[in-house]
Amino acid sequence: xxGLLNKTRGDKVIWAVVILLALMSMLVVYSSTGxxxxxxxxxxESFLFKQFGLTVVGLIIIYFAHRINYTLYSRAALLLFIISxxxxxxxxxxxxxxxxxxxxxxxxxxxxxxxxxDLAKLALFMYLSRQLSRSQDEIKDLKKGFFPLIIPVGIIxxxxxxxxxxxxxxxxxxxxxxxxIGRVNLKHIAATIGLALIPVVLLVGIAVGYYDKQEQxxxxxxxxxxxxxxxxxxxxxxxxxxxxxxxxxYQVQQAKIAIAxxxxxxxxxxNSQARNFLPHPYSDFIYAIIIEEYGLIGGAVxxxxxxxxxxxxxxxxxxCPFAFGAFLALALSFTLVxxxxxxxxxxxNLFPVTGVPLPLVSKGGSSFVFTCMAIGILxxxxxxxxxxxxxxxxxxxxxx
Length: 400
Fold this sequence. Notes:
Elements: H1 2-7, H2 12-32, H3 34-40, H4 44-67, H5 71-94, E1 96-98, E2 101-107, E3 112-115, H6 116-134, H7 142-160, H8 165-181, H9 186-209, E4 211-212, E5 217-218, H10 230-241, H11 250-262, H12 286-319, H13 323-347, H14 366-399
Helix pairs in contact: 2-4, 2-12, 4-14, 5-6, 5-7, 6-7, 6-8, 6-13, 6-14, 7-8, 8-13, 9-10, 11-12, 12-13, 13-14
C-alpha cells in the first residue's frame, strides 16, 4: 500500500475532490435507487455494491491513466477521434433506445450499455488540444488554423445532436471556449456561434409559436416537426419558457419540492421523500436529492468541489510549460465543470431539462468510466508539472 501511495502523484487537491465526490455518489445513489430496486425486484444494496465496484474500477482507471505520460495521449488522440465517428454513426441508426433516446450501444457478452458520445467527447477534446498546440503559429488563419479545429467539432456535434442535443450544445460551447483561450480569431468564433444559434433560435421560435397561451398547452405539431426528438425539445422549451403561466413540468415540480423540503441543513442521509416521485433521482436529478438530504449547505459543498477542481486545473494550465498539456488540462476540466453546472442549473430550474448527469456523482455507467479517464489524464498533466517543478528546485538548490 505504501508503494502504491508513493507512486501516486499529481494534484493532491484534485485527488481529494474526486474521492469526496465518489463517496457522496455512493451515499446518494444508495438513497435514491429504492424505486428502481423495487421495479427490478432486487435489493437497494445491490445498487450500492455496483456503485462501489464501479467507483473502485474508476479509481483504478484514474491511477493508471495518471501514470502514463500525457504526451502519449497526443499520439492516441487522432486514432480515438477516427474510431468515434463510425461508432456515433452506428449509434445514430442502430443504437439501443433508452429513455426515448438512441444514445447507447449494447455490448455483447457483458450485457452493458455504452454511450458513444462519452468516448467521442473525450477524443474530441484530446484532438482539439493537440491541434491547438501544433497550430499556434498560424492559429489566426482561416484555412490553416480555424478549419482544422471547427470541422471535427462540427462533425461530432452533428452526429450527437439528433439523439442528445444538450450534450452536443455543451461540447460545442466548451470547444468555443477552448478555442478562445487558444487565441483563435474572434471573428471566426463569433461567426461560428452565430451560425450555430440559427437552429437554436428557430427551435425556440417554433416552441413559442406552437404554444396556446390561453389553454396553456402545446398545439399539435405538423408532421415535419414530429420526427425524432424534436417534439421533446419543443416541449422542454415550452415547459421552461412558460413555467410561470402553467403548472411546471412534473420533474421540475418534484425537484422544487425536494429542494424546499431540504431547507438549510436537509432531512438527513437516506431520508429523501422526493426520491419516490422524482424521475431519475439517481442520475439527472440527483442534485435535488442531495439538497433534500443534506440541505443547501450540502448543495453548496458540491458546487464548491467542482469550482475547486476548475481552479486547480487552471493552475495546472498556467504552470504547464507545454501547450498540449496546458490545453488538455483546461479542456477536460471545462467539460466536467460545465456539465456539472448545467446539471445543477436544471435541478434548480435555471435551465430547461437536459438529461445531463452530474459527473462522478450520478449513478455510474460509461459516463462515470470516461469521466474517470478524463480525470486520470488531467492528473497525468499535473504529475508531469509536479515532476518538472521538483527538478527545477533541485537545480536551484544545487546552484546555491
